[in-house]
Amino acid sequence: MEIAAVLGEFLTLFVMAFALGMDAFSVGLGMGLIQLRLKQIFSIGLIIGLFHMWMPLLGMVIGGYLSSQLGVIATYIGGGLLLLLGLQMIISSFKNDDKRMITPEGFGLFIFALSVSLDSFSVGLSLGIYGAKTIITIFMFGIVSMFLTWVGLLLGRKVQAWFGKYSEALGGSILFAFGIKLLFPL
């Protein structure tokens, strides 16, 4: 039965990492419309992957501290944060502003990576409160977001960005569902 629990947690973390990576994927689609060299695409994905490891780690450390201080109430706070984050992603996917265009070089790359990984901090905070396994979580978030960023950038080179808004809404829906799961455990 313990193997099933470990596989269940692994699958849950993978789906959550995929949901968070969809934001990087959708922004990568838009960025991919700029003619980027493959070397640039590689480094952008790597940087975003590192940010998706560092930000949830920071959130998990803070969340773990809050969990030991607040107990059961902290689980509800974590669920509420996931609900708000998912809702924010869903709402932002329906906005029609194309002002997110940042040049993915130098300081612009830092801003770009930070902006698509801020939601990972909030999720890390929630997971730290919930007590998720740190190493597995940060590596899962980093690898999945790096891969999805690469896919988004490469697809953006090939096609128009008409696909991007739907992926952000899907990612927000998944986070919203995990927030409900935390608030109303079976």
UniProtKB/TrEMBL annotation:
A GO MF term: manganese ion transmembrane transporter activity
Pfam assignment, any one: Mntp
Q: Does the keyword Cell inner membrane apply?
A: no
InterPro entries on file: Mntp/YtaF (IPR003810), Put_MntP (IPR022929)
Annotated compartments: Cell membrane
Q: Which keywords belong to this entry?
A: Cell membrane, Ion transport, Manganese, Membrane, Transmembrane, Transmembrane helix, Transport
Predominant cellular place of this UniProt entry's protein: membrane
Query: GO cellular component annotations, sorted alphabetically?
Result: plasma membrane
Membrane topology designation: Multi-pass membrane protein
Q: Where are the transmembrane segments?
A: 12-34, 41-66, 72-94, 106-129, 135-155
Summarize the protein's role. Probably functions as a manganese efflux pump.
Identify the HAMAP family for this entry.
Answer: MntP_pump
Membership in a protein family: Belongs to the MntP (TC 9.B.29) family.
Q: What is this protein called?
A: Putative manganese efflux pump MntP
